[in-house]
Design goal:
The structure holds two protein chains of two kinds.
Chain A: H1 2-18, H2 21-37, H3 41-56, H4 58-74, H5 77-81, H6 87-116, H7 123-147, H8 151-173, H9 180-185, H10 190-199, H11 209-230, H12 234-240
Helix pairs in contact in A: 1-6, 2-3, 2-6, 3-6, 3-7, 3-10, 4-7, 4-8, 6-7, 7-8, 7-10, 7-11, 10-11
Chain B: E1 2-9, E2 19-26, E3 31-35, H1 42-49, E4 57-62, E5 65-66, H2 74-77, E6 78-81, H3 93-102, H4 110-116, H5 132-144, E7 150-154, H6 162-177, E8 181-186, H7 189-195, E9 198-203, E10 206-211, H8 213-220, E11 224-231, E12 234-241, H9 249-257, E13 259-266, H10 270-278
Parallel strand pairs in B: 3-8, 3-9, 6-7, 7-8
Antiparallel strand pairs in B: 1-2, 1-4, 4-5, 9-10, 11-12, 11-13
Classes of the chains: A mainly alpha, B alpha/beta.
The structure holds adenosine-5'-triphosphate (ATP) and magnesium ion.
Chain lengths: 244, 286
Amino acid sequence: MKSRLWILVKGELQRLNKYNMTFISILVAFLWGVMLFFVNAEILGTLLPLVILLDATMMSLMYVGSVMYFEKSEATISTMLVTPVSNAELLLSKLLANTLHNMGASALLIAVFVIIKDVQVEYLFIIIGIIIATASHTLLGIVMAYFSKDFTGVLMTVMVFSLTMMTPLILLMLNIIEGEVWEVVLLINPIQAAKEVISAGFTGYVFTYKYYLSLGYLLFGSLALYKFYALPRFQDYAIKNSGV
Amino acid sequence: MFKVENLKFRYPKNKEDTINGINFDIAKGEIFGFLGPSGAGKSTTQMIMIKILENFEGSIYYNDKDITKFSDEFYEDIGVSFEMPIHFTKMTAMENIDFFLKLYKNKGDVESLMKRVNLWEDRDKMVGEYSKGMKIRLNIVRALLNNPNMLFLDEPTNGLDPMNAMILKDMIREFRDNGGTVFITSHIMSDIDQLCDRVAFIVEGRIIEMDSPRNLKIKYGKRSMTLEYKENGETTKVEFPLDSIGKNKEFLNLLQTKEIETLHSGETTLEDIFIKVTGVQLKDEE
Ligand SMILES: Nc1ncnc2c1ncn2[C@@H]1O[C@H](COP(=O)(O)OP(=O)(O)OP(=O)(O)O)[C@@H](O)[C@H]1O
Ligand SMILES: [Mg+2]
């Protein structure tokens, strides 16, 4: 059972590579890297966490959305349904593989900047932050793919979601919205919560209840989303996209 | 082996039932065919039998056990090919097969299967570069790679050239001769006629008739002998009943005295019987 999950994860990763997603994500990371390389140290301090945030959230949604779209267009899910693999194994393997895959670029970026620009990070917290932010948004992306009819649909959903969610985040950052009430209320926005847990990985972050609130929200929110929505609706999704 | 009782099914968005209460059972070691026109509900029935479509009415048993009580282990035991061949197109045939093979406990002999369908030479080609017929053949390999006890084949010969269709039919027969059980759907009469031990005629989600092709021909068939002969430069065609033809004076007389051009025994085809029994044409005959 455990080894079958691993076979599935490996298969997903192999396909991500074959379908050029690995290349694209490394390319994107490289472009971010080039951009960050030329900004001064002070701006780098605020920009790097933001780039990591974008990579963990928006890009995760985008990648998993595209991957699920490719899968839809090949209708391979129906074949998976007639193997001894359970729906939970299928869904979990998608989540694991895509999370691993999406984390790769962020990890690479951070490693590079730690080495060449001497950026200070707290390894434990940056790892926790990236994992939880990426995993929760990958799951969100999977659920969004349930609703999208075609590739444009995937892109639209991701774009609309990201823009809607980024707006309050930016308003907060620019102090256009102010006050602790807003800071807490807006944690309901998963990207805002992700920002909190990722920021904790950079030296100088001040831990407050907001960190634990964000972490708990992303963790239990994802678990609930997985258990009560993503998994029960998987069969329906798979049948609809089995091309029969 | 497989038993379907009062099966009814409606797609969630539809107003009417697609399957309207059908009953049949498939014995172990039997090839059982579903013959019907497009839209009759053949694929739908197969999707229900392989536990993909749920929420049906009625009962279905596999080896005397309700199929809804089976876990995903059910799939260790069966092999399925869908109407459309389905693979990861950016991977080679062998990468596809290896991936699926790893998911089963029971592992068949891939090399001999691939050789059998003449794909061994092309095993390292991307499936995306395969022709339609090659994809269909690969589909069969996938359905057989876990050495299943029962096969479900949805229009397996559709899109195959006669040569490969024959190989495939041989494989299906061989599978049966080794104790396997087969459910097969088709709208191609000759496939069903050549392969099936029993056939069900399905129209609009109802089974209209069910028996062996041979019994159906005896029951509905008109057995006759048609003779064409030439006389004064003109061809005349006469038809005689096949029963006790050896004593038919007129027939014997013609044979002895005329210049015979053709002589055919006309058994009614399964397709003729299908049309006669159901009143429906089997469309898009290939
Ligand atoms: N996903 C679906 N949702 C709603 N209705 C469907 C769906 N799939 C099939 N149907 C309807 O159910 C009926 C039976 O379809 P089915 O695919 O089982 O026919 P079939 O006998 O396999 O035909 P064919 O020979 O063309 O493959 C058709 O009227 C079809 O429109
Ligand atoms: Mg069909």
